[in-house]
Amino acid sequence: MSATSAGAAASWWLADALADEGRVPPAPALAGVARADIAIVGGGFVGLWTALALRARRPDLSVALIERDICGAGTSGKNAGKVHGYWTSLPRLARLLGADAAWEMARLGSRAQDALRSFAAGCGRDIWWREGGGLKVSAAPAQDTAIDAAARAMSTLGAERYARRLSRHEVRDICRSPSLREGIFYAEEATVHPARLARALRAAALDAGVALHETTPMRRLVVDNGTCHIEVPDGSLTAGRVVLASNVHQIGQLATLDAGLSRRFMAFSSYALMTQPVPERLEAIGWTSPVSIVDARSFLHYSRRTPDGRLLMGTGSGPIARGGQVEAAAMTRDAASLARCERGIGRLFPALAGVPVAARWGGALDVSSDRFPVAGSCAGGRVAYGFGFSGHGVNPSWIIGQCLASLALGQKDEFTRSPFCTRALPGLPPEPARYLGGCAIRRAILACEEAEEDERRAPALARAVAALPSLFNLTIGTR
Ligand SMILES: Cc1cc2nc3c(=O)[nH]c(=O)nc-3n(C[C@H](O)[C@H](O)[C@H](O)COP(=O)(O)OP(=O)(O)OC[C@H]3O[C@@H](n4cnc5c(N)ncnc54)[C@H](O)[C@@H]3O)c2cc1C
Fold first, then answer.
1. C-alpha–C-alpha distance, residues 407 and 386, integer Å
2. Residues 62, 265 contacting (CB under 8 angstroms)
3. CA 271, CA 314: separation in Å to the nearest integer?
């Protein structure tokens, strides 16, 4: 089989990464009966970082990784490649878990940033790692309050050095657009070519001695007498421990192992488009540095430029998966979400409206009930899981990879003691209330944010429904 995949067809990044590495064939599918000390399911960032951590910490243990497609074909090869830890969410973390836990998580995010930087420098490939910082900016008068509140909260927490308040004039030094108002600059942020990163991690895992099997979907996982059996189409893999790193696809699997977990997360979707190279148009608005730009909506527009002068524009406003149906067309082919990406260009950067588009795609997001990732174990500690990146996983997947390696090895350390492993996730309403309520709230928030962008007052009903999650003290769906 050639190195093509559904993911390659859908994401500009993966197609580019595969072309760049020169048609590397997939690793052989698993056929027959195999054994490993630890088996990992899923070859995205999480599975690959976990595999590397396991081999680095315990070279005496055998590690096998199965991937249903090719490594990087999931969301790891589809995202915007904005890389940052938790300074942007420090105030929300502090409200949720207290200041100490918030700082601990943010410092682990900085550790992850260091690990990514050093991997980029040492992996022997150009994965387009660029450190330019990230700008969160108000793009409508109604968004000014979010910028003010974030700046005030960072100052209350004594974290101003991680988030510099920028005047409208200073924002213009980054990008000249009549839509952009005041902002906050997060210096730690970087950008990367996400699919090249995933493929470089794959190469590193092979070099580290991981037994990799691509085009090998797990059909069933059975834990029996302390041993884990993974069924695949042409054989099976037996292991002492299993790490589930299959992102939204572990929802169903986890529900069978631990029913309580199915109330802890949902699948949303995010959409992006990549333009043709337009370096002269970006230069004309002064956007020459690798700073990425997001607006201050809760269903935010995210954007960045690439080293070859393309613009990526995305929106986190895609549909919700009904009852965990993560393969539904709404997760990858929602015309309304793609239209919002296109409108986002005209809205944030009017001078770029109508630039030719090279590719459009969407992907499912694993959203946890507090919108931060979590790692844990079930089946008597035999199965470790990590999920809940909630649209922010490039940097945190390193942290969760370390947590999963520690859980699989039974190690108690700074990762397993961190809030990523120890905090309790709130429960979400049961289905179908979760899906129906989620859809109503999503529609209401979109209506409010679109009205605010046009400087109109949103309909009263939309405002009332959008306020419900805060009233009920939920952390998901809040504005
Ligand atoms: C459009 C979009 C934009 C985003 N932008 C950003 C961003 O700019 N910055 C950021 O930090 N995050 C972003 N994210 C989120 C980020 O991409 C994810 O959080 C991250 O890639 C998750 O990595 P993962 O390894 O958990 O998932 P994945 O990369 O999806 O890996 C899971 C793998 O498991 C495999 N798999 C599934 N089921 C099975 C099975 N039964 N057997 C074997 N293998 C299986 C899949 O094929 C897949 O390769 C974005 C997401 C999307 C969709």
1. 10
2. no
3. 5
In angstroms, what is the span from residue 464 Cα to ligand 1's centroid? 33
CA distance 328 to 359: 20
Q: Which of 69, 79, 268 to mutate to test the pocket of ligand 1 (most atoms within 8 A of CB)?
A: 79
pLDDT digits (tens, 9 = 90+) for 105-126: 999 999 999 999 999 999 999 9
Nearest residue to 367 (alpha-carbon basis) of 292, 307, 316:
316
Question: What average pLDDT does range 158-169 have in this prediction?
Answer: 97
Residue ranges lining ligand 1, Cβ < 6 Å: 41-47, 66-69, 73-76, 78-82, 217-218, 245-247, 249, 270-272, 314, 363, 365, 389, 391-395, 397
Residue ranges of domains in the chain: 12-422, 433-471
Has residue 61 got a pLDDT over 80? yes
Contact 479, 371 (CB under 8 A): no
Q: How far apart are CA 309 and CA 311, in angstroms?
A: 7
C-alpha closest to that of 201 among 405, 4, 82, 48: 48
Q: Does the N-terminal peptide bond of residue 432 adopt cis geometry, omega within 30 degrees of 0?
A: yes
How much is the pLDDT for 478?
Answer: 66
d(CA 169, CA 430) in angstroms, rounded, equals: 48
Best mutation site among 52, 76, 221 for ligand 1, i.e. most ligand atoms within 8 A of its Cβ?
A: 76
CA-to-CA separations, 28 to 7, 25, 207, 211, 317, in angstroms, rounded = 18, 9, 16, 10, 37
Q: Tell if the pTM clears 0.85, that is, is over it.
A: yes
CATH of 12-422, one of 3.50.50.60, 3.40.50.300, 3.40.50.1100, 3.40.50.20: 3.50.50.60
Phi and psi angles of residue 405, each rounded to the nearest 5 degrees, phi first: -60, -45
Determine the length of the chain: 479
Tell me the average pLDDT of the chain. 94
